[in-house]
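Write out the bound-state structure for sulfopyruvate.
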Amino acid sequence: MTKAAHLRRLIEEGRGPVLTAGAHDGLGAVLAERAGYRAIWASGLEISAAHALPDAGLLGISDYLAAARIMNQACGLPVIADCDTGFGNELNAAYTVQQYEAAGIAAICIEDKVFPKVNSFADHRQMLVPIAEFTHKIRVAKATQTDPDFMVIARTESLIAGSGMDEALRRAHAYADAGADAILIHSKAKTHYEVEEFMGYWAGRLPVVIVPTTYYEWTARDAGRAGASIVIHANQGLRATVSAVTSAFTMMLNDGCSSSLEGHIASVKEIFELQRMDQWLELEA
Ligand code: SPV
Ligand code: MG
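---
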């Protein structure tokens, strides 16, 4: 089964939302798989942060695709690739579909903001493109794919841009009419209520994807009961890494050695296991 078919099956079998972890490299994807996540979000925020760059449209499709490809090859999970606004106009969106599909990526997600976008949590120009411009992009993207299982997820930033619930619903329905396979409704609210309200009105027309970063107290189980098909923990892995590495480096510099860390950090043996070193070295035998 292709990974695109696998992702569709996970959504359709309805055993709760597909728990999806944000990652930016092969190791992150392997850690998510080992922990029990069922899909990978190739996060633009994480891929940008891994380059020590802001999530502001600086990196291009080559950088994003290379990262998504590495994650896809490193683990058995389907990858949902964050493709920002589709890297330009509808031609760029078509090229994006061609390239990601050829790389075996299960789904792409494109959002209805003006290029170059800025991360949704930045208090900075959160501007939406006209609905007709984005529906055209979706139609071209969907017409480009050759594998019927490949998914194009349309993400509306209406709530992020402060355009309100009616606009979010209007856009989501227009994107569904244009052929989107799922809708990502993004929110930066501190509570889940607006996302829950959206899903109530939406009434399951298409699968809904959510990213509970600011409304982190909402459990995936409750989100699933409210209608979410995919729940993305988009950046917590990156944030955990930053905290852990910062405290480890500080401790070693302060102590002049790593003895207070040993016992708290992964062993070299565990790193070898994550690298599947034994399997590789068996090839020499
Ligand atoms: C990302 O992870 O890059 C996302 C989700 O698009 S967010 O950062 O919440 O916008
Ligand atoms: Mg992003």
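---
The two ends are 31 Å apart (CA to CA).
Residues 22, 43-45, 55, 82, 119-120, 211, 213, 234-235 surround sulfopyruvate (ligand 1) (CB under 6 Å).
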